[in-house]
Task: inverse folding
């Protein structure tokens, strides 16, 4: 099995985290309401990374993904932009799997 990209325990300190993928792309994972979702770290508006200045990916309430560049808000379940200049567009999702030990892997293609 390929190397994990993260572990569930890492979400104990923060509900979101950036990760480097094996192919060199930057991505991020968020855990909202117990569900982990993964996306390529690129806003569909200006193709910039979404990280907020503190490195987080969620707005202050912890419910929505927020673009640090212009404040666009995205649903963590689907990556759909629900507020901002790219409303109706989507983040690029990444399929993941979580094994019995809590390791998070990119799902096999």
Result:
């Amino acid at each position: 099995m390929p190397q994990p990209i993260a572990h569930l325990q890492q979400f104990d300190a923060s509900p979101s985290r950036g990760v480097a993928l094996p192919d060199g792309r930057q991505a991020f994972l968020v855990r909202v309401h117990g569900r982990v979702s993964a996306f390529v770290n690129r806003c569909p508006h200006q193709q910039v990374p979404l990280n907020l200045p503190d490195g987080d990916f969620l707005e202050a309430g912890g419910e929505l993904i927020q673009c640090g560049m212009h404040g666009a808000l995205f649903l963590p379940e689907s990556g759909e932009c629900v507020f901002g200049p790219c409303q109706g567009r989507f983040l690029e999702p990444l399929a993941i799997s979580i094994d019995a030990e809590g390791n998070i892997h990119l799902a096999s293609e």
Summary: The domain at 6-106 is CATH 2.102.10.10 (Rieske Iron-sulfur Protein). The longest strand covers residues 26-32. The chain has one domain: 6-106. The chain is about 0% helix and 35% strand.
